Amino acid sequence: MLLYLLSRFVSTVQVISTCGDMELELVQQISALLHGPGGPMTGSSMTNDEAREYGHAAFNGAPFCLVRDWIWVDLEGPADQDKLFTRLEIEPVVLFAHTVVYDSLRRLDVGDFVRSSPLYKFTDGFVFQTKNTHYVLLGDGLRKQAHPKTLALITG
Fold it and tell me: What mean pLDDT is predicted for residues 75-90?
């Protein structure tokens, strides 16, 4: 973990040292989104094993992913963005999770981070459903706001 944090710090310092003002602002926005404070939210208190059993039982074979250290991101944008989301039957909300615990389709490895597509439905106080995956939010998380452009810069 220490090596991971050190590599992230070195990468950030390298980026900042080669950035202009606009790029520096983007780096600061991404850093604030990923590591800054936010409003507290509570996910499920299930253990990883309990959550895996829950997912297999509750989602009838549909893809699901168990995540921890998650961030509920409300997307900021113009009013026409909200109209588009409404027309597509989704909400202007995206999930970012620092830690994947389990992915039923093995698209992601344990420990990976994940950024979801927009929210389709939120149920049971801890299931963040997109049109293609159910994300089970485990433990505590944060709620933040971000511009879609900021979120788009976070890739795997």
Answer: 86
Dist. CA 17–CA 54, nearest whole Å = 47
- Here the tokens at position 52 are 């895996």
Q: Are 46 and 54 in contact (CB under 8 A)?
A: yes
List b or e across 92-125, with b for residues whose CB sees 16 or more CB atoms inside 10 angstroms. bbbbbbbbbbbbbeeebeeebbbebebbbebeee
Distance CA 27, CA 19 (A): 9
Q: Which residues pair with 71 in a beta bridge?
A: 96, 142
Q: What's the predicted TM-score (pTM) here? A: 0.83
- CB atoms near residue 8 (< 10 Å): 13
